[in-house]
Amino acid sequence: MPVTKFSTPEKYSYLNGFDSFHESESIKGALPIGANSPQKPPYGLYAEKLSGTAFTAPRHENRQTWLYRILPSASHSTYKRFTDPSSPILKAKLNYEPQQLRWDPFDIDEKVDWVRGLKLVSGAGDPTVKSGLGIYVFAAGRDMDTNTAMYSSDGEMLIVVQHGVLDIQTELGRLLVRPNEIAIIPRGVRYRITLPEGPVRGYILELYQGQFQLPELGPIGSNCLANPRDFQIPVADFDEDTKIYPYKYDLGRFSVIGSISFDHPDPSIFTVLTGPSDHPGTAIADFVIFPPRWLVQEDTFRPPWYHRNTMSEFMGLICGQYDAKTGGGFQPAGASLHNIMSAHGPDADSYERASNAELKPVKVGEGSMAFMFESSLMWGLRTGGWRLPLYGMSRTVSSDPSALPQAVQERGSLRTLEKGKSQFIGSSSGIYFVNTVRRAFINANTRLSSRLLDITHPTPEECIVADGEDEQQRTNESSADASSSSFCYGPGIPAGLGRPPQPEVAKHLFMTYFQTWHRFFPFLHGPTILKTMEDLYSSFDQHGAASELITPRVPMTLSKVIILQCIFNLAGLHGSSQLPAASEIQKPTDVLSYLPGLAVKGDLVSIQALFAAGLLLVARMSLRAAAVVSGLLSRAVFLAGLHRCPCRYAKLTADDCDIRKRLFWCIYVFDRYLSQALGHPLGIQDSDIDVCPLDGPELHHPQLYPTVPSSHNDINSPFSGLSANSPSSQSRDIPISSRQSETGSGRATSEDNSSQKHHRHSSLSFQVQYSRLLGRTLELFHKSLHIRSIDSGSILSLQTDINALWNALPSSLQEFDPSSHDTDGNQGQVFNESAHFILLHSQLLLLIHRPRLSLEPSTPEFQSAIQICISEAREIIKIISKQHNAGHALFWPGYLSVTWMAGIVLAFACQLRLYSAEKGKREIAMCLEALLYMSERWKLAKNCHAVLSDLADAFQEMEHTAMRPPFDILDSTSNSVHPPSIQDHVVGDPGSPTVNSQSGPRKRARLHSELRTRSNQNNDGSGQPSNQFPTNIVNAPADGPLNYSFLDSFNATGPAIEDYPYSIDDPGRPSNWESGMPDLLAGITWESLLGGINQNDPTWDNAFF
């Protein structure tokens, strides 16, 4: 039985042995007796000799096979020339590099077969004189044609499968080769390859000189390493008498030899096969593996050491993680090359971990298999036909002389988990920068490495995406059990989506949603969703028994239910909104399983339901699940044509165009946020869009628009799914005036209405413009390394556009002063627009300059970037702290990552002594305080707090154990980007608890207790502690009851909402929650709405209002 547990079962039989004589026959009696080439072989077969060595080679070296064939191989058809991407190595085509090189995993091309999927990477020598070797990768997705065979006259091929399964039909029999197996095809043997389980990829070492042999064992004795009996030779599909044959070997059968004392044996003890040279002990090629094994040495550095070797080393990874390269850069299907005498060894994290590890018996490499092609020859790189390698830790592929002097190459992180799972976090998330900072702290003081590498502390990856987030069930901490809903959505609606809350609770949640989330993501049409709420609660039959659930008389569609439940759950995230446990969507999987069916429907209501679910997942920081929904949304957008401007199509009314544009741009902003947060490619490319902006100009001939009035009850209206013809809506005519702006006279809207719509959706319009720039930033700095090209001109153009947008913003969105707003008990619901856009601007500047912080600190590029990043980090912390102290709702998840990143930047600058330690400690303490506050909403914030606390503690310890030189860098208060003094950047008196209580070391174990106490220690700016975070904040006047009709809080005799006098660029415009309301009741006067919605009307008994 093989040692490796293969997922694909073996289907062929084999002979066993190595370098031994074998004979087999597919038909009994087919082999001749006593002669190799009789006059008439049995069954009329043709005798044919295949020679692997010269006729006169010494007998112990002679390799030959006699085949008995139905047709001789000379009867093949005429050869046809084709352009071979793996053309033979010629000296003029190779480039010799002393650099340490690394390749990311190579892609699979599913359109090519084996022959066309071979790519030469490196090699030495010349196959025309049978000298040297070649290294290839293969990636294919198609079977070779039935009548096509291949052979190599260059040399003997050693094939390493990394992905997929090869079914190799040779003229000597069949081999099934799976990952963790190798196959050797001798020179001249013909074969055909099919792919029984789809696309494949892997590595090939072709030996031009001689054949592969088993290495000598020497003092080891006669056993271990690769045993001859474990090599498997195919059984003939015809007849053969052979000593030259293909064979395969299961790497899991390799018997590892290692040290049981102190110090290391050389890695040559892991050699499986060798191609010896004429010089004893020196190989043309060795095939070496690093399988799972026990390490038991004492008082030694256990991973491979740093060295310079007279042998060239090409390494690949079949699966798992190589124990000497744990930093994430060396990935399965990737590769590295260290040429002769090129210095190399384990990465920094592996070194620090091994240097401080407890030396006890430990098994390494579990679930992993790394290998090495080693040679005494110097290898050159193929200069064409294959991707460029990655030079060291960073390299630019741009040939532009104006490119950056040093490469800016942030990379992502791939983690392999149990049960075949893997998690990728891309570089735009900041993961590379955070690891760079951690390495800087470790290198500065190795005694701190045990703390920073403590496996009980969260990793940087766990600060971006927490493990198990998609499986976590939310716990309802509300004690309001009496609020548990007795309503349900009726049959056919999955119970996992929850029940509708009681009407009074629903009113409050509904208003909270429109006061907050709708202001920035107006993907819903206010009057339509309001009508849906009315239909839901007015149709409930409440005359059942007390123990029975109350069901609506009119069935609700799944799309409507998802939208309503997501609205309730989004509003329920706010501290004042007590969402009953029965109404909660407990786990992401409770809603994810119902979404794929909606994605293919193509109606707007289904797409709105998809977006509502995605927004809820983001708000809960379930980013992986949200990314799945984002993928569904991007496909749904294209299927429904939302990526094309609706004004191009005559059948769409003005209302249709408006809601389609709003929905599309909300999805666009959503896509850009997730792409940056997770480091994923953009789901929607700008080149695929021609939707005109919400704020104009409209480029698609407005004079051609029809003037046919629309109706919400028209079956062709995109709103029909959310405004179904319920009995209540058919039985009465609600008198509503001035509805033209949203539901009235088609496209012929007035100039005033257009202006009002522009003001109403300015927040979304500005977010779209920032999202465009965010997408450009990701495309410039975080595309695939193989095509990434970063030049100073592109960076300058991007910076110019960012500054132009910032300068174009209204003054009211550039200045944040919480003291100018009311701070009553409702303040916890306030979401300040100016603070939001200031943070977006600072985040973009961080994203542009942060990649240069991975360069050498001595470079001018680094020095310039670090000062800009310090300024933006201080601005971020200042704005977040002001909102924190003012009690504003920090409910957008992007605030968590940008706050954490700002703290990391300042910690890095302080560690490098490029920023004042005193100011840095104070501002990092403010950052930690904000993270504590956010951890009440997101568990992920606890991980961010712990990682930043570790860096702060390490910096504090470094301060105590080493004398700092005088701070000689210009004070950042004189920075031209942010000229205000430090008092403008630090909230509160330096002696206030906000600052002092956080200035010392902070341990992760204190986090939960601090969560309960810190919220009472904030400062209101007067120097006295105050309670800035009310535990019961409602969306109504402080003296108002919760159970009134939600319209009673408005002045029924006031002006129409549509006549709201303020615009977004009006300095006098209020910034409280009311600015989110116009779309909810667009064009409806309070008189008409209250007249139509009358609680005293008997037809409204038991209804929503």
From TrEMBL:
Span of domain Xylanolytic transcriptional activator regulatory: 626-699
Cofactor: Fe cation
This protein's record includes keyword Ribonucleoprotein: no
Sites where the protein binds Fe cation: 307, 313, 344
Keywords, comma-separated and alphabetical: Dioxygenase, Iron, Metal-binding, Nucleus, Oxidoreductase, Phenylalanine catabolism, Tyrosine catabolism
Uppermost EC category: oxidoreductase
Pathway of action: Amino-acid degradation; L-phenylalanine degradation; acetoacetate and fumarate from L-phenylalanine: step 4/6
Enzyme Commission identifier(s): 1.13.11.5
Molecular function GO labels: DNA binding; homogentisate 1,2-dioxygenase activity; zinc ion binding
Positions of the catalytic residues: 264 (proton acceptor)
Protein's recorded name: homogentisate 1,2-dioxygenase
